[in-house]
Write a structure and sequence with these properties.
The chain is built from no helices and eleven strands. With 124 residues, the chain is an all-beta fold. The protein is globular and about 45 Å long. It starts with a strand and ends with a strand.
């Protein structure tokens, strides 16, 4: 099973940017569904971006501000976050699963590999 490790979180002011990285122990190129989730204490985990065979889909609240992409080598997943707002404060997780057809969705129970999470705090 692939192992995932996130990095890049931190404290940023409203309007600022961060880039999260998710390093994989195995190749996670074509054939994988790759996603970013986030969770606030006391709330359910929320899917925000998914990469399906190279095509991204975003939760409406982050669309046009966040970008999910993978490096050419296929070992690292990224989440570029711009125009950050206090409502984006959460612990962010990357997730992966083998794509067995039928599409990739932001449903956390479908993912078999998870990172440990990285905290993002947006505050002035």
């Amino acid at each position: 099973e692939v192992q995932l490790v996130e990095s890049g979180g931190g404290l940023v002011q409203p309007g600022g940017s961060l880039r999260l990285s998710c390093a994989a122990s195995l190749y996670i190129g074509s054939g994988y569904c790759l996603a970013w989730f986030r969770q606030v204490p006391g709330q359910a985990r929320e899917g925000i971006a998914v990469l399906d065979n190279g095509y991204p889909t975003y939760k409406l609240s982050v669309k046009d501000r966040f970008t999910i992409f993978r490096d050419d080598a296929g070992n690292t997943l990224f989440l570029q976050m711009n125009s950050l707002q206090p409502g984006d404060t959460a612990k962010y997780y990357c997730a992966a699963r083998i794509d067995r057809g039928g599409g990739c969705f932001l449903l956390d129970h479908q993912y078999t590999a998870w990172g440990q999470g990285t905290q993002v705090t947006v505050s002035s």
